[in-house]
Amino acid sequence: MVNDVRVLEHLANSDHNMLVWNLICDASRTKNQKLSGKYHKADYGSMREWFKCIDWEKECGSLAVEEMWQRFCSIINQAIDLFVPLGTNKNRRNPIWMNKAAKSAQKYKSRM
Questions:
Q1: Which residue from 30, 56, 90, 106 lies 20 to 30 Å from 4 (Cα-Cα)?
Q2: Cβ–Cβ under 8 Å, residues 71 and 59
Q3: What is the spatial distance between Cα 68 and Cα 62, in angstroms, rounded to a whole number?
Q4: pLDDT by residue (tens digit) across 55-83?
Q5: Domain for residue 77, yes or no?
Q6: What is the 3-state secondary structure (H, E, C) of the chain?
């Protein structure tokens, strides 16, 4: 994986030396085409009404705790499938973590 390692001169006034090497690796990038839930566009009103129609006593009443949790999770996932639209973030200019504070910190660093 590492090829052609060379030791160069000292780094500034330090007793440390600089190292230069070639790294052999596969650098191909693939686009993430996975669809994710757009929760900000979900129909929460209809989801709330859908949850009101569920007979929770019938669904979970006679089950053990672990089975109850599994049933509850499956009902929640069903609601997500029904009321949360799917989509990609291909129109996004910045990464999802790039919020306003990170953007201003990036601009500040560039100015410095």
A1: 30
A2: yes
A3: 9
A4: 989 888 888 999 999 999 999 999 999 99
A5: yes
A6: CEEEEEEEEECCCCCCEEEEEEECCCCCCCCCCCCEECHHHCCHHHHHHHHHCCCHHHHHCCCCHHHHHHHHHHHHHHHHHHHCCEECCCCCCCCCCCCHHHHHHHHHHHHC
Residue 45 lies in a domain: yes
Look up residue 69 and give its two tokens.
Answer: 């949790």
Backbone angles phi, psi at 88, to 5 degrees: -110, 165
User: What's the domain count of the chain?
Assistant: 1
Rounded to 5 degrees, what angle do the CA atoms 8, 10, 15 make?
Answer: 135
The span from the CA of 38 to the CA of 89, in Å, is: 9
Q: Is residue 57 part of a domain?
A: yes
Question: What is the residue whose two structure tokens read 């859908």?
Answer: 50
- Which structural domain range is residue 79 located in? 36-87
